[in-house]
Amino acid sequence: MRLSELAAEEGLNPTMLSRVIGDLVDAGLLERTSDPHDRRAALVSTTAAGRRLTERIRRERTAALNEALAPLSEADRDALEHALPALEALGEQLKRRCG
User: Fold this and answer.
1) Strand, helix or coil at 13?
2) pLDDT above 90 covers what percent of the chain?
3) Which of 66, 62, 65, 14 minimizes the C-alpha distance to 42?
4) pTM
5) Each residue of 29-43: b (16+ CB within 10 Å) or e?
6) Sequence-separated (6 or more) residues with CB below 8 Å from residue 26
7) CA distance 87 to 27
């Protein structure tokens, strides 16, 4: 993905994103290469270490969410599940407004 696309998608300042990307490259989690179609642009991709870290974070986040949801009644869990599309739409709306 091009850095400019990533900044736009995430609603981030491109300069700040570039600094963060540099730190992640230095940590071996991302790889930055030149765009073969536009040498002024950079492409970013995850490394094997970056993919492993991403999966570990997802597993830990899922486990924490499951633990937090466990005490809720089935009706409350169902209500949360049904609210997810509206919450996702709200998040997208806020991203567009702030971006």
Assistant:
1) coil
2) 61
3) 14
4) 0.70
5) bbeeeeeeeeeeebb
6) none
7) 34
Give the number of residues written for the chain: 99
Alpha carbon 86 to chain centroid, angstroms: 19
| Residue the block writes with tokens 């765009």 | 35
Amino acid at 82: H
Beta bridge partners of 42: 34
Query: Token pair for residue 42?
Result: 């950079």
Which two structure tokens, joined as six digits, stand for 39?
Answer: 């040498």
* Of 94, 99, 97, nearest in space to 6 by CA: 99
- DSSP character at residue 72: S
Whether the predicted pLDDT of 94 surpasses 80: yes
- Crossing angle of helices 3-10 and 14-26, rounded to 10°: 120
